[in-house]
Fold this sequence. Notes:
Strand 1 (2-8) and strand 2 (14-23) form a beta hairpin. Strands 4, 7, 10, 11, 12 and 14 form a six-stranded antiparallel sheet that branches. Strands 5, 6, 8, 9 and 13 form a five-stranded antiparallel sheet that branches. It contains one helix and 14 strands. It folds into two domains: 1-30, no CATH class; 32-194, Jelly Rolls. Helices cover 2% and strands 43% of the residues. By secondary structure, the chain is mainly beta.
Amino acid sequence: MADNFTILDSVSGTQTVRTTDLGSNVHIPLAVSDALPLADVTLTRPADVTAYAAGDAVTNSTSAPTALTFTNIGNKNGGSFTITSAMLISSNQAGNALFTLELFNGSAAPTATNDNAAYNPSDSDRNNVCGAIIFPTANVIAGSSNKIYIGSLPPLPASRCNSGTSSIFGLLRVGAAYTPISAETFVIRLFGFRDN
Length: 196
């Protein structure tokens, strides 16, 4: 059985910790390995092979891009969650690049940058950043037709969806030069815990 406890910290005041009940009122924090899938999205880049420079945005259009939406990452509008791990699955088996995913918990999706243009969110969008996940080239598993990048997360505190939604949003960028394949797909999966 799992239970949530609210604890005090020195930064934000309170945090929610999800624990396992061992019986006799003994609780231990759930391990990262116990994390559940929270949400996943698929991004299909444009049907071209234009190389990316370091710092370029990876989006679904060169003229009318949209941000990624991770739906129902909270169990209700304004719900809180903790991301403990992530993976990015690319359909480009031969590719190898450093990717960074920025996460936003604003009331609306951030304005996405055109694909292959320099990543440059507005200051107002950046005010809603609730975390970032780096997918380094060292954490890669190559398959027969795809490549899986395992996310490297700094300690991410529990976060909360905006009061009007149970979703958060994401923007992807490359950290080094990268040659894509036409209409390359990226499946991004987030794992962790939804708090009550």
